[in-house]
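Recap for those who missed Tuesday's class. We walked through two folding examples back to back. For each one, the amino acid string is listed first and its predicted structure tokens come directly after. Nothing is annotated here on purpose, so try labeling regions yourself before you check the end of the notes.
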Amino acid sequence: MRRFVTSLAAAAVAAATLLPASAGAKTEPIQVSVQPSAQLVDGGSIRVTVAVRCAPFGEPFEANVTVSQDDGFVWTQRGLPAATCDRRWHRYTVVATPFEGSFHRGTAYVSAYVSRMDPATSEVRQGQDARTVKVR
């Protein structure tokens, strides 16, 4: 009986030392980088590029780019393609057409947001970036 209790206690200690390692496993965030310049295209739209890096995880959940100019009087929001998550940087280019008006050369404010979700656990990982870009 003593041997059984000792074995049970040893198993409990081993499990307790293993649990914190798995419970505290490092989660890798999604990295998002809005590129510093954008191109004006015919019709008053802007072509913006966003770089994304992420580890394999879950499924695409939400990914978008918001562009505004002239204190927000000209703006839009567009979806980004589903990011490839293989721990390498991937660039995605989107043509952002304003809801009203036209974008123009100068500066614009661009923000990008990417998230993925594990459907089994509902854990969500996300990343975002925002900056003023030069529109050429």
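Example two. Treat it independently of the first, because the proteins are unrelated.
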Amino acid sequence: MKKVLSMLLIISVLSMAMLSGCGQSSEKSESSESAQQESSAVKASETAVYEKPEIVLRYGELNPDTHPMTMAARHFADEVLSKSNGRISIEVYPSGTLGDEKTEVQSVQMGALDMFRIGSSFLADYGVDMMKVFELPYLFKGVDHAWNVLDSDIGTQFLTAVDDADIKMIGIGYFVDSPRNYFFSEAQVSSVSDMESLKVRVRQSEMDIETTNAFGASATPIAYSELYSALQTGVVDGAENALTAYEANKFYEVAPYYTFDAHSMAPYMLVFSEINWNKLAVEDQNLLLECWDETEKWYRTLAAEKDEEAMTNLKAQGVEFFEVDNAKEWVDAVAPIYEKFGAGYEDVIESIQSME
């Protein structure tokens, strides 16, 4: 009897084990099928073409459509639309349509605007103290040197500084324009003494103001959108900007004397609203970064080509160009700027200036 009971127990246990095994096999099969279905759904969404965007982002720019930075913004928008199969669209608003620099920066901080191309000086004034380094006059040797710095760990360090500054903005990438130079309505400037008492429009930035004042001029902050009329009416005697912006905004019509002093080559940065960035899926964030990386490379070639075109066009328009007589006197004039704004960042400055 005991043997029979034992045999029955053994059979019972084996039967339960077999049933359990079959259940597990069925569960695994269902789980595998579900995973395959999910994978297929993901692949389908990746290859789907969207008739209407699910996400619409807004990008603010101060320059007109003819400027390389605005062209880069539109190229970026095209890349994002293409690589997202129409799911993500970027609307570009050029020519300060959404306001001046201060207004658009505040819109980014509040989440009313997604992206804006901002100057290093503005970021410094908004609390990213390290950005003062980029604004130091005569910091970079040329465009290639500036890009080499930004492509290095130093460039990454500055982007991270924006993210960590608690100013509601995320650093996406860079623009490097050709050097900023002074231009004037009537003055023909080739030496520091020629700058004496001239009223020169500058951006609303402490360092910009002090740099221009260091040359003996009277720095006058005016909104970029008002600059043309300010030059035309004599509110200011001159201003400063890179060659392509000077041409694109037709400043040569009211200020035909351009001096190559190359006092600034501070990079611009594309920033994203932190509020809106955090609403995006990680995959979408990565897609935007990937598209910007491609756009940045595309922009470098375009900017160089546009500089050459601008020189040709401006000469044809009758613009008179001047080289400085003594570059050292311009550099010496801004030595106090380094002492004031470069304090605490001597190692970073040295690393930048020692880089080829």
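Answers for example two:
Confidence is low (pLDDT under 50) at residues 1-45.
The first helix runs from residue 2 to 47.
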